[in-house]
Every structure is written in structure tokens, then in C-alpha cells.
Amino acid sequence: MPSISEKGRAMPASPIRKLVPYAEEAKRKGRKVYHLNIGQPDIPTPDVALKAIRNFNLRVIEYSHSAGNESYRRKLAEYYQKIGIRVDHTEMLITTGGSEAVLFALMSCVNPGEEVITPEPFYANYNGFATSAGIKVVPVASYIEDDFALPPITEIEKKITPETKGIIICNPNNPTGYLYSKEELLVLRDIVKRHDLFLFSDEVYREFCYDGAEHYSAMNLEGIENNVIMLDSVSKRYSECGVRIGALISKNRDVISTALKFAQARLSPPGLGQVVGEASIDTPQEYFKEVNREYTERRNYMVDTLNNIPGVYCPKPKGAFYTVVKLPVDDADKFAQWLLESFEYKNQTVMVAPASGFYSTPGSGKNEVRIAYVLKIDDLKNAMETLAEALKVYPGRK
Amino acid sequence: MPSISEKGRAMPASPIRKLVPYAEEAKRKGRKVYHLNIGQPDIPTPDVALKAIRNFNLRVIEYSHSAGNESYRRKLAEYYQKIGIRVDHTEMLITTGGSEAVLFALMSCVNPGEEVITPEPFYANYNGFATSAGIKVVPVASYIEDDFALPPITEIEKKITPETKGIIICNPNNPTGYLYSKEELLVLRDIVKRHDLFLFSDEVYREFCYDGAEHYSAMNLEGIENNVIMLDSVSKRYSECGVRIGALISKNRDVISTALKFAQARLSPPGLGQVVGEASIDTPQEYFKEVNREYTERRNYMVDTLNNIPGVYCPKPKGAFYTVVKLPVDDADKFAQWLLESFEYKNQTVMVAPASGFYSTPGSGKNEVRIAYVLKIDDLKNAMETLAEALKVYPGRK
């Protein structure tokens, strides 16, 4: 029997993979499990999008252009222009989710063995795409005490080696919810310029900014237009994660034409998803206001409640719908398993994502978990109450 | 400005990419261009599939399981069992088109620098996926004079080196239309067994077998169950190329669990596509009979007509909807460009895919083109008449 590849063995498993059997077992026992561990919003997909599916009337579901339907790219360019990002339809490729945009960007720009720096904790799947591309993600620590702000320029520059090819940021951030300020982006611009690096900017949570905070896109950083590659997705914006539609956007023509070759090999992005994505651009502004109101309420409730639990510290993030929380526990991996395996409160329990899965520095984030506030406020209340009770009795409490 | 990656530079462009501007220019001039160059069938998608889209009634388009919806996998397993391939829903992953199945299989099984052997000419995008994975496709020549039958065992074994990790076949074949016999598959089995290789079997054209010929799946080869990875897609079977739904199937648990890690990194395959794929399994048998009748008629017409043109040789393939044809021309690349740029007959011309794009051995297939018979018989007649006229006047005729 031939052996599987080294790359296959090196591929990281999903950080919550080992918890899944415990969650299933808890459910089998009739227990209600609140999922605070995933980024699957419960917000309805906009009506215009759902209507587009039901009105689909072609006789043949054909391949689209490898770069995505031109009609969709043109409309997407209009969306970007409206929010102040000046790109046209030739400066983008439609991808199969934001995931493929990250993969194509890394494959197109970074050689096997080379390095990409990212503030840690970071979106765990960057490791998977980096492994696929044979490259290395080099973490630079950010800290919960600073609410996970961008590490100082000196710390970032310490990580730069001759192998460094770029920096990848997620803004607003998954897992921390941190929203980078314009000043922080200017710091990144200076580093990118000085060392001639690519800046991969994952902006899929752009619409999720709270307290009136504004999102500043890396695409608007002057003087590094050829260095910036924006990675985007409709998944969170319109709560349509399942359509698998994303985009890779850059002013750098070499990057677009190179990524197009990867896109041609896989023929085309999903056709029905593009129909949905295109229709979604007409989502009324009211939808976003309502979603923002809803998430703000959830966040405020969650942050306040968590910070009232003795020993817990929860930053108040300005973006996305996650937060990384410090818990008074010995080991968040053990705690997460214990919640599912051994704990119940009113026949309920919660599933959280241990933050260790978002750090690549061993030992980091040991007493932290990522919580996604993607539940309705009543469910969130029950979940928070359950978590508070759990922390009272957890044997590994510190 | 940072440089793009070596891999990006090495990625092959689509074989017809350089012809596209000429085709566009011909259309701008008001010329009718018959597309014999692409594998986009004009056959309608089955009604059950289109109905499933229009009846979509979920409020949130959510991520599916990374391996694909269990309901779909169970139903797909039933489909395979019905056609004599004994697999269950745990022995497969739903992928984003057959393309992703090929990529995941190569990434999971073959190390960068290692080799995969394939009969040449071969599906050009295998090169793209191999480049993405950092591996090498080693061609073993098959010949139009043999109608592109499997090369003799001795020729295949000559290509085996310590770096050889597997063999990839496409059966029925794109681009040649050749259907491998059971005897040929048994030859492959022996080689695979003797050298402990993977056998990657791309069977996306399974339903397209003519003249009563039966398809023999590599999944049914006894004694190499852990070596075989079947790659599949709904694109051609149900004429729904745009849904981007494929599958990776194997009895080898290590391969499935490894490929699942790549699948988890990209979260999930397209959700709407899975709804369509699942519904498509209920396509009535009548649909396939009708499609088969239609393609048989097209093929017979095309093969007879081509072989009646002086200097042309066209095999009569038993599968898929392509054939590689030998033309009396100096250089098929030049001829294909000339057809679009300088020729018209009754204000019509044809676009063909030069076979050079399907060979990696330099100089091979220089006077061959791939023709896809995906046009209605009346269009096909016009296209063949136009091609015959073109060959009469082409300045590079030999």
C-alpha cells in the first residue's frame, strides 16, 4: 500500500476536530449544545439572493469564465467603488470562497520554503493553505492585554528574514475581532514598502464594524498598489457561506494574470453561487443596519456578561463576530472537552473553540478560547449562564 | 514590486488561451464561430435538477460538512452501487468539481518532486494541478494509429523511476475519447501492484460509452483496493458543469482522512451545487438513453465526414465526446489561428483545440486537433463543411 504524502501528513486538522465526537455524544444524551465555536451566522440570507435562486431559469448550468462572470465582476467593482475602493472588473478574479482566494494568492506569490508573517492568534486555515503551497506562516505575537492590537513595528521587523515574501492580515480579525486602525495599516505599509513584500489583506468581515468604527482597506494604502492583494468573500457579508464565492483583488496585473492560470486549471468558480453573489449586491442598506444592530447587541451582552464572571477577561472587539476570551482554567483544550463530556447545567452545555488552534507558537493561548457570537440573544444568554456555571465547578479552575 | 512565484510562472496557461482574442475578433467582425474546442455540452440539465434549484427554500445558505452533505454522500453511494461500484458514504468526499478531486488526490498522495505517469495525449489541466502540487507528470506515448489504446506494459514500465508515485488515467479519455477495456485495466492493475503505486482514475465521462461498450471502473480491480482513487464529477453526467460538484472516492482510509484535511481548510464544497447534484441522481434513465443516442449520431456523422476529407484521419472513439483528429496541415496551432484570423466560409468559421496542448513531449501532436462534438447535428454539419473548405485552401496544407 503506497504511503500518503508528507504534505498530507503535515496538513493541520481542524482545531475543533477532536471535540466533535464529544459534542455528538453530548447531543446523543439529549443535551442541548450551544455552538459558540463556529463562524456560521444564523442571520437570514437577504431576500434578493434567495429570490435569485428561485428565479433561476437557464436550461443548461454551464461553466462560467474562469475569472468569474463578467456581469458579476462589473457589479462587484461597483460595490467596491461605492465603499471607496477603486478597482475595475479586470482587477479581480471570482474564487471558490475566500479560501480559494487565499490559496491562489499564496501559490501565485510565494515560493515553497518562503515565509509569510502574520499577527498571532490567526485564522487557523492560513496554516492549511500555507501547507498546501509548501510555505511557512511565521507568527508575530499580539496580546489579549492589548486587545490584540497590531504588534509594534520592531517586533514585526524582527521576524523578517531573506525568505520573507509577505504579510497576511485579517481585518477585522478572525479570531480576535480586532479592527486595525488606519494608523496601524500605515505602519504595515511602511514595512511592506521598505522590504518589498506582498500584503495579503483578508477583509471578509469588512461590513462587521461596531460603535461607528470605520473600516480602512489595505487597497487604499498609497504607494504600495502593486504589493496589496485583497481577499474577499460574500459568505459573511450576506450570510451565504454555502455559496462558496470569494474574490482575489489586486492592482498588480502580474498577480491577476498568474492567479488566472490557477483559476483556468480548475475551470470556473461555482455558477449558482455567482448568480446569488451578483443578486446580493442589491441587498438594501436596511439589512446591514439591522445585522449591525443585532451583532452590537449580542457583543455588548456577551462582553459585559463575560467580564462579570470572576477571573474572565474579554476584550470589546470592534469588528467581526468573534472574541478571544481569557478564562480562569488550567488548559482551554481540556476545559472545552470537559464542557462537552462531563458538564451540564439545566441539561445544556456549550462548545467553544480552544484558542490554541489559532496560535502556532507552542503554549500560547493556553487559557484562551474563541467565542463566536452567532447565536440569537436568548440562546446567547443561556449559553453565557451555562458557561458561568461551568467555570464555578470546573476541576481545573485556576 | 515583489516578484510572483516560480510556481506561478510555471503554471501552464490554458491551451486555447492564445486563440481566444482571435475568436473574439472574428465574432466582432460578425462571423459565426463554431466552438469545437470546448467540453461544454449543449445538452439541457435534467429537469429534476433545475426543479431542485427553483424549490430551494432554506432561509440561510450555510456551510455544509467539509466532506459534503451526508444526505448527498449516501445517495451518491447508492448511485455507485447501482452501477456496480461498491462504496459507502464514508469512502468519499464531495469536492468542488472533479478539478478539486484531482488536486486533493495529488496533494494527499504525491510529494513535491515525485512523478505521476499518464498516457499522452492527456487532459491538459493535470499539468496545472501537478504544478500546483509541485509534482511532475511523466507522459507515456499513445498513438493515433492505435486509436490511442493503452501503451504496452513495457513502455509504461520504462517510465517508472524511484520517484514514481502513481499513474493517472482518464477513462473514457479526454482528449481522445478512447475507452479502456477491462483487459487494459488489468494491465494497469498488475503494474500498480508490482510497483506499489497509486492509480488515479478519472471517470467523469463514465456515462458516455457508445456502440453498447461497457465502462469498467478501476474501483472494481481486485487486489489493489487501497491503491485506487477514483475522481468523479457531475458536470458531464448531468450537463451541469457550472455547479462545480465532484467527488474523490477511495477504499483507502488514509487517503480519505488526509484529503479531508485539505477539504476542511477550504471549509465546504458548494452548497447549491450539492442540492442540484443530489436531485440529479433521480434523473430518469430515459434522459441518458436520449443523450447517448444524440452523441452517437453526432459522433458517427462527424467521424464519417472527417474521414471522407482527403488527408484527414479520425479514430472512432467509444467514449466521452471528443476525438483527436489528424489533419493534413503543417502545424495545428497555426491552422487553428488561421481559421479564426484569416478564413471564412459563408461568413462562418470553426474553433478547434490544437492537440499540442494535450502533449507534454515537444513536437508531439503537431498535426492533430481535439474536436468536441458538443454541437447540435445541424451546427455540426455546418462546422464540418466549413472545416473541409478550410482544409482545401489553407496555405500550410501538407
Walk me through what this model shows.
- The structure is a homodimer of 398-residue chains.
- By secondary structure, chain A is an alpha/beta fold.
- Chain A has 13 helices and twelve strands.
- A seven-stranded mixed sheet of chain A has the order 2-8-7-6-5-3-4, with helices on both faces.
- In chain A, helix 8 (182-195) links the parallel strand 5 (164-170) and strand 6 (198-202).
- In chain A, helix 3 packs across helix 10 (271-280) and helix 5 (97-109) crosses helix 6 (125-133).
- The longest helix of chain A has 23 residues, at 285-307.
- Chain A is globular and about 60 Å long.
- Chain A starts with 5 loop residues before the first helix and ends in a 5-residue tail after the last helix.
- The mean pLDDT of chain A is 96.
- Chains A and B meet through helix 1, helix 3, helix 5, helix 6 and helix 9 of A and helix 1, helix 3, helix 5, helix 6 and helix 9 of B.
Topology:
The structure is a homodimer.
Chain A: H1 6-10, H2 20-28, E1 32-35, H3 47-54, H4 70-82, E2 92-95, H5 97-109, E3 115-120, H6 125-133, E4 136-141, H7 153-158, E5 164-170, H8 182-195, E6 198-202, E7 228-233, E8 246-250, H9 253-265, H10 271-280, H11 285-307, E9 322-326, H12 332-341, E10 348-351, E11 353-354, E12 368-372, H13 377-393
Parallel strand pairs in A: 1-10, 3-4, 3-5, 5-6, 6-7
Antiparallel strand pairs in A: 2-8, 7-8, 9-12, 11-12
Summarize this structure briefly.
Two copies of one chain form a homodimer. With 398 residues, the first copy, chain A, is an alpha/beta fold.
